[in-house]
Write a structure and sequence with these properties.
Radius of gyration: 16 Å
CATH class of the largest domain: Mainly Beta
Strand order of the largest sheet: 3-5-4-14-13-10-11
Helix content: under 10%
Bound molecules: zinc ion
Order of helices and strands: EEEEEEEEEEEEEE
Largest sheet: 7 strands, mixed
CATH topology of the largest domain: Tumour Suppressor Smad4
CATH architecture of the largest domain: Sandwich
Distance between the termini: 24 Å
Shape: globular
Number of domains: 2
């Protein structure tokens, strides 16, 4: 069991959010793309896919690539959406990247075929967008929720 830091409700570990108040639960998640201890990292971003409940928790001391793996081209994005993709949702192999900035984590669309939409606004290719906690991002038609830890 764990206890919500906000409303103090007890809940089973492994859930994505507090069943009482909905606070996002970081939990015992593995931080990808970093050699540092979690406690040493300031910029941590979680990507949650509501459709599958899949999550990635990412440290931003390096760039994080978002897309689909392509063994033929030796492309292995840290956030590999292959298993979340189908012909309909249009995630590109090199769709977007996430990196640290002085103001916080930014998301950059890499001129993807079907684009990146944040809270219903399409991103212009290669224009960095400063992510906010709770943003809803669509890679093509695939919805991802974003949570920031600081
Ligand atoms: Zn709660």
């Amino acid at each position: 069991m764990a206890t919500c830091s906000d409303c103090r409700t007890d809940y089973l570990t492994g859930v994505l959010s507090c069943p009482e108040c909905g606070l996002f639960v970081w939990g015992d998640t593995i931080v990808l793309n970093s050699d540092k201890e979690v406690t040493d990292i300031s910029g941590i971003v979680a990507f949650i896919i509501p459709k599958s409940d899949r999550r990635w928790v990412l440290a931003l001391d390096n760039e994080v690539n978002i897309g689909r793996a392509d063994p033929d081209k030796d492309l292995w994005p840290e956030v590999d959406l292959t298993s979340e993709s189908d012909a309909l949702n249009g995630v590109s192999r090199q769709h977007a990247l996430l990196r640290h900035s002085d103001h916080g984590p930014v998301l950059v669309d890499l001129d993807s075929m079907n684009g990146t939409i944040i809270n219903d606004f399409p991103l212009s290719p290669f224009q960095p967008y400063l992510l906010q906690n709770g943003d809803r991002v669509q890679f093509g038609d695939l919805l991802v929720k974003v949570y920031l830890k600081n």
